[in-house]
Q: What sequence folds into this?
C-alpha cells in the first residue's frame, strides 16, 4: 500500500485514477540517479541477493528479464498529482451511490464466504468489503504494472531507493515461494499488489491461503483477498464486537482543540458536551470511550470513532480513508 497523507490526498487513494499502462523502457545504459552503474549491473546485483534468499534461477530469469527502467513508472513517481480536498469533496468523490450499491451487491453475493471469515478472524465483514472497494474497486482495478518491473525501476532510480530495494527482494522471495507467477504479479506503479493492494512486505505478514489451494492468491481468489484483509485488521488491533464509529450530530459548537483521535472521552462526557447520535438521541452505552472527529470543522459532518477506527488507519493512515471505509462498509448491509 502506498503512503498517503490525511488532508492532502491523491485521488488514487480511492481508485479514482484509471489504470495506467506500463511505459516503454529506456536503454540498458541508463544510469541511476545516485550515480551508480548500468541497469543491467543493478539487476545482476539483485539476482545475487535474491539467490542468497533462496529464489530459484528459473524464477529470476523470468522476473528480471527487463530491458531498462520503466519510464511510465518514473513519470508517475516524479509527477504525482495531488489535490487538497475538504472532507465533503473527498466524500462526494469517493462514497458515491454507485460504490455503495456495489458494496451492498458484493456483500450479498459473498455473504456465506464473509461469514466464514468473520468466524475465523472476528473482523466486521462490512469493513473488509469497504477496504476492498476503496483499494481496488471491488477487484476491478488492481493496477496493470508488472510489480517486479515497477519496484526494480524505483529501487534503481534513487528516490526512496532503500525502501523499494527491500520491497523488490521481498517480491522476488514471494515469486520463489510459488504463490504467483511473475507474469501474474501485477499491481500499481509503486508496487502495491492485487485486490487488497498489499506491498510485498505486507503480503508476507498478512496474506492468507484461505481457500487451501497452497497459494496466497490476492489477485484472483476472493477467499484469499477477504481473509488477507481481515487478517491485516486482526493483527492491527481490531477489537471483536466493537464498531469502528458512527456519524453524530452536535447540539452546540465544540472547540477544535477538544476533537481528534487523541481526545478520548466516555460517550456520557461527550453527551454532556452536546454530542448526540445522528438521529438526535442519546447514546445507549454512555460508558464506552470514543473520540470526536470534525473533518471539515464544526459546520460539517461529525463522527464518533472508537478503537477499531485506529485499526483501519493502520491499513492507510488517513482519517478520510478510514471514514470512507466505514461508511461504504455500512452501506453493504
A:
Amino acid at each position: 500500500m502506498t503512503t498517503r497523507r490525511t488532508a492532502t490526498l491523491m485521488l488514487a487513494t480511492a481508485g479514482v485514477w484509471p489504470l495506467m499502462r506500463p511505459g516503454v523502457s529506456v536503454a540498458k545504459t541508463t544510469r541511476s540517479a545516485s550515480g551508480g552503474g548500468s541497469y543491467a549491473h543493478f539487476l545482476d546485483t539483485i539476482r545475487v541477493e535474491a539467490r542468497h534468499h533462496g529464489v530459484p534461477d528459473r524464477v529470476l530469469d523470468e522476473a528480471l528479464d527487463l530491458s531498462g527502467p520503466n519510464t511510465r513508472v518514473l513519470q508517475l513517481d516524479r509527477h504525482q498529482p495531488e489535490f487538497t480536498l475538504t472532507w465533503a469533496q473527498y466524500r462526494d468523490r469517493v462514497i458515491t451511490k454507485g460504490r455503495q450499491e456495489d458494496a451492498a451487491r458484493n456483500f450479498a453475493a459473498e455473504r456465506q464466504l464473509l461469514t466464514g471469515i468473520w468466524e475465523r478472524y472476528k473482523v466486521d465483514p462490512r469493513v473488509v468489503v469497504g477496504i476492498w472497494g476503496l483499494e481496488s474497486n471491488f477487484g476491478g482495478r488492481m493496477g496493470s504494472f508488472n510489480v517486479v518491473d515497477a519496484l526494480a525501476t524505483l529501487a534503481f532510480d534513487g528516490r526512496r531507493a532503500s525502501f523499494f530495494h527491500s520491497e523488490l527482494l521481498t517480491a522476488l522471495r514471494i515469486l520463489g515461494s510459488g504463490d504467483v507467477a511473475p507474469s501474474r504479479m501485477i499491481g500499481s506503479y509503486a508496487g502495491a499488489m492485487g485486490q487488497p493492494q498489499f506491498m510485498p512486505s505486507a503480503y508476507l505478514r498478512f496474506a492468507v491461503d484461505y481457500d487451501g489451494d497452497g497459494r496466497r492468491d490476492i489477485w484472483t481468489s476472493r477467499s484469499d483477498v477477504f481473509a488477507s484483509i481481515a487478517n491485516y485488521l486482526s493483527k492491527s488491533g481490531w477489537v471483536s464486537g466493537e464498531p469502528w464509529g458512527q456519524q453524530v450530530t452536535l447540539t452546540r459548537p465544540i472547540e477544535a482543540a477538544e476533537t481528534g483521535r487523541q481526545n478520548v472521552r466516555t460517550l456520557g462526557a461527550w453527551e454532556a458536551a452536546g454530542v448526540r447520535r445522528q438521529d438526535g438521541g442519546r447514546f445507549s452505552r454512555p460508558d464506552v470511550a470514543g473520540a470526536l472527529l470534525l473533518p471539515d470543522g464544526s459546520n460539517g459532518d461529525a463522527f464518533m470513532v472508537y478503537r477499531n477506527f485506529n485499526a483501519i488507519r493502520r491499513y492507510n493512515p488517513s482519517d478520510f480513508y478510514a471514514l470512507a471505509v466505514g461508511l461504504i462498509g455500512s452501506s453493504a448491509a
Observations:
- Residues 245-305 form one domain.
- The first strand starts at residue 8 and ends at 9.
- The longest helix spans residues 161-177.
- Strands lie at 8-9, 83-84, 145-146, 186-187, 245-250, 264-266, 275-277, 289-293, 302-305.
